[in-house]
Specification:
The protein is an all-alpha fold. The protein is built from eleven helices and no strands. Helix 2 packs antiparallel against helix 3, helix 2 packs across helix 7 and helix 3 packs across helix 5. The longest helix is centred in the N-terminal third of the chain and has 21 residues.
């Protein structure tokens, strides 16, 4: 795979005050993102994917509200994480918000849209892991979650959030599955 999750990074999550359940989620997202990236057979930065996924919810050490992405990115900068990693942390809310959506949600007004494949893989893995781990939708395997992704997001508003967010997540799913299945 080329990159393995580092215990020292997990220790950073713990020392920052991220709860054990959130750490488990972050580890699972990192594992899933790396596995997806490997299957795309694209030339992607595996370390960025692994570390971006692992740290995406660092802000949950402070809050579980929508601003946890922004707060996590600020924490990540203080910890010396790269701009590419803190971008993933800040942008992962609802799959990458537009300026108008940020304004509506009370976040700093700027473009949070996802620009790189690495960002999109992490955000896609995050949504998949939510489906796999939440227990809201009965799925027997991770593969089933991927196969039923569109159906699940359309049938369970919890995962699609709203029309704009749903459309983004479905777009990431189709793009990444297209890379996997070529």
């Amino acid at each position: 795979m080329g990159y393995k999750i580092q215990n020292s990074d997990i220790d950073i999550l713990k020392k920052s005050g991220v709860l054990e359940d959130d750490i488990k989620h972050c580890i699972k997202v990192a594992e899933k993102a790396l596995e997806i990236a490997q299957r795309t057979d694209d030339n992607v930065n595996m370390e960025l994917i692994g570390r971006g996924a692992l740290f995406h919810d660092l802000g949950k050490a402070t809050t579980h509200e929508i601003e946890h992405g922004k707060i996590g990115a600020e924490m990540g900068k203080r910890l010396g994480l790269s701009q590419a990693i803190t971008d993933i942390m800040e942008k992962h809310i609802r799959g990458g918000l537009t300026e108008d959506e940020a304004r509506e949600l009370g976040l700093p007004v700027k473009d949070y849209t996802l620009k790189t494949l690495e960002e999109r893989i992490v955000i896609y893995a995050d949504r998949l892991v939510d489906i796999i781990m939440d227990g809201v939708v009965p799925v027997k395997t991770e593969t089933e979650a991927e196969e039923r992704f569109e159906e699940i997001l359309n049938d369970y508003p919890k995962y699609g959030k709203n029309e704009k967010t749903l459309k983004r997540y479905l777009g990431y799913h189709r793009e990444i599955q297209g890379l996997i299945n070529r």
